[in-house]
Design goal:
Blueprint (H helix, E strand, L loop, with lengths): L2 E2 L2 E7 L3 H10 L5 E7 L28 H16 L6 E10 L15 E5 L11 E10 L1 H14 L3 E4 L5 H8 L4 E4 L16 E12 L6 E4 L6 E11 L6 E11 L8 H14 L9 E13 L4 E8 L21 E8 L5 H20 L5
Parallel strand pairs: 2-3, 2-8, 3-7, 4-10, 8-15
Antiparallel strand pairs: 1-2, 4-6, 5-6, 9-12, 9-13, 10-11, 11-12, 14-15
Length: about 375
């Protein structure tokens, strides 16, 4: 059945940062019985099957202004900022460099971040003409994902490890008149019945290092082309909430499914990051880990929208124990899509989750919307 003691069954398909944040927001409503179903679960921090464990997980300027995504980012930035006192997030001074003239006082994110300012010439690395500074915020997936999972467990949210190949299989988990949150990331490309061929990977490679001097977020504008360099240095809290480590990046390779480590890419990252922060080359810099992951992007931008989809009548994909009667397999399922965030999953997560909640509430209770 799609409800238990008057509750509506909500199945969140996907346990990346988007799926977990949506589950967090929806589980605040006692009318929803939330279950997270995924092939890769939050404890799988070494899995390359989803991007969230590998992310830089800070707020950084990406792309051009968009009213909808700006709202998501503003909500998320403020949420992360409020987590600083708990140790889940840290604030860090930031400098972003540009190699061409821009109207820096008109940057779309100037009112989103804290303490925005235009950099003086003495604050620019060689080769850059302009730059801005501000305070940003970051979290660390190694501690952040377990934290949000613990909160969900305390609310009675269930987790199930299951590889779901089709909409029919997923819808059966939600049941007639249930809710399915499609937060499958790259999986949205091949989810049978709901395939979205606009979904594609962006390969990234980073290096995790330890050096107390690398305590400033630095980045350059993303290079052009489908295989671009994305140079950034991201300090973030360590998993024990004492001190921090730093991410050096990176690569931004569209439509590249290769998850293998590239020594050549690693050398390039170290060279480019050293040009921004000479302390990278210090003897005290200790390399902790090399990361390779696939960012789940989408042509046309993130998809956050709702639709009613007929629930299949046949349930041959269910086990004998899961098999429901014919009456249970009639009706429709509210499907709310939440995927395609590319490199911005963390920095849009809370705002996007709030919109998902609004869509669920509005479609289930149209007279109260």
């Amino acid at each position: 059945m799609s409800s238990e003691a008057g509750k509506t069954q909500v199945v969140v398909l996907g346990a990346g940062v988007i799926g977990l944040t949506v589950a967090h927001v929806l589980s605040e409503n006692p009318k929803y019985k939330v279950k997270v179903v995924a092939r890769d679960l939050p404890e799988d921090l070494d899995s390359q099957g989803f991007a969230s464990p590998w992310a830089g997980a800070n707020w950084s300027p990406m792309g051009e202004y968009n009213e909808r995504t700006y709202r998501w980012e503003k909500t998320t930035f403020d949420k992360f900022w409020d987590m600083i006192s708990s140790g889940l997030a840290i604030a860090s001074p930031s400098r972003v460099f540009y190699d061409e003239r821009k109207d820096l006082n008109a940057m779309w994110y100037k009112d989103l971040v804290r303490e925005f300012r235009v950099l003086g010439e003495n604050e620019l690395p060689a080769g850059f003409k302009r730059g801005v500074g501000f305070q940003t915020v970051s979290v660390c997936p190694v501690s952040y994902l377990p934290w949000i999972t613990k909160v969900l467990a305390s609310r009675g949210v269930e987790f199930a490890r299951k590889k779901v190949a089709s909409y029919g299989e997923a819808a059966a988990l939600a049941g007639a008149n249930g809710v399915l949150i499609n937060a499958t990331g790259l999986g949205a490309r091949s989810l049978i019945g709901l395939e979205d061929k606009d979904v594609y990977p962006i390969r990234g490679q980073t290096i995790v290092v330890e050096n107390p001097k690398l305590n400033e977020f630095l980045c350059t504008e993303l290079g052009a082309g489908d295989s671009a360099d994305a140079t950034y240095i991201i300090p973030r809290p360590w998993s024990n909430a004492i001190g921090f480590t730093t991410i050096l990046g990176g690569k931004y390779q569209r439509d590249n499914w290769d998850t293998s480590f590239s020594p050549e890419d690693a050398r390039g990252i170290l060279e480019r990051c050293t040009a921004l922060a000479p302390a990278v080359a210090d003897k005290e810099t200790r390399i902790l880990k090399h990361n390779v992951g696939l960012r789940p992007a989408r042509r046309g931008g993130p998809r956050v929208e709702a639709e009613w989809v007929d629930l299949p009548r046949k349930t041959e994909w269910l086990t004998h124990e899961e098999h429901a009667s014919e009456n249970d397999t009639k009706g429709t399922v509210l499907v709310v899509h939440a995927y395609g965030f590319g490199p911005a999953g963390y920095q849009m997560s809370w705002g996007a989750a709030e919109e998902v909640r609004s869509l669920v509430d509005a479609h289930l209770n149209p007279n109260q919307a």
